[in-house]
Amino acid sequence: MVAGGNHVLVYDTTNGSLIQLLKGHKDKVHTVSYAKNGEKFASGSADKTVIIWSNKLEGLLKYSHNDSVQCISFNPLSHQLTSCALSDFAFWSSEQKAVQKHKINARINSCSWTNDGQYIALALNNGIVSIRNKLGEEKAKIERPNGPAIWAIA
C-alpha cells in the first residue's frame, strides 16, 4: 500500500500491478500503516482524518483530528491504532469502537510502538521523545537541551 496524492494505492506485491486506488481523503495522504495481524490498515491525511480499512479494501471507520495527521502506527500485539496530528494523538481499538484523544504541546513528527506493545514513542518537533503507555500517559521523556526536531523514530 502506498500513500500517493489524495489516495491510498494498493499494489500486488508479486508483480507490482495496481489492485485498487482507494478514495476517501480530501487532501494529501501523509501516512499508512498495516496491522500485524493483516486484518486492517489505516491512512492519515492532511485533511485531518484517519481512515481504517479492512483487508478487503473497504472503509471501516473514519475519524478526525484538529490538525493534519502526521503519522500512524498499529500496536504490534493489541492492534490498537495510534494516530498523531500536529497537536494531539489518539488511540483506537476495535474493542472500544471509540477514539481516545490526548493533547500535546509540540508537533508530533513520528511515532513507533515498542516490540512488546507496552509503550509508544512520540518524536516531537521540539527535540523531545515522549514515551507513553497504552493509556496515553507519559512514562518517560528524553530531552535534549536545544536539540533539533526529531523527524523519525523506530
Summarize, please.
The chain is an all-beta fold. It has strands at residues 2-4, 7-11, 18-22, 29-34, 40-45, 49-54, 59-64, 69-74, 81-85, 88-92, 99-103, 108-113, 119-124, 129-133, 138-142.
Give structural notes.
The chain is an all-beta fold and 154 residues long. Helices cover 0% and strands 52% of the residues. The chain is built from no helices and 15 strands. It has strands at 2-4, 7-11, 18-22, 29-34, 40-45, 49-54, 59-64, 69-74, 81-85, 88-92, 99-103, 108-113, 119-124, 129-133, 138-142. A 4-stranded antiparallel beta sheet has the order 4-5-6-7, with no helix packed on it. A hairpin with a 5-residue loop joins strand 12 and strand 13 (119-124). The protein starts with a strand and ends in a 12-residue tail after the last strand. The mean pLDDT is 93.
Write the layout of secondary structure elements.
Layout: E1 2-4, E2 7-11, E3 18-22, E4 29-34, E5 40-45, E6 49-54, E7 59-64, E8 69-74, E9 81-85, E10 88-92, E11 99-103, E12 108-113, E13 119-124, E14 129-133, E15 138-142
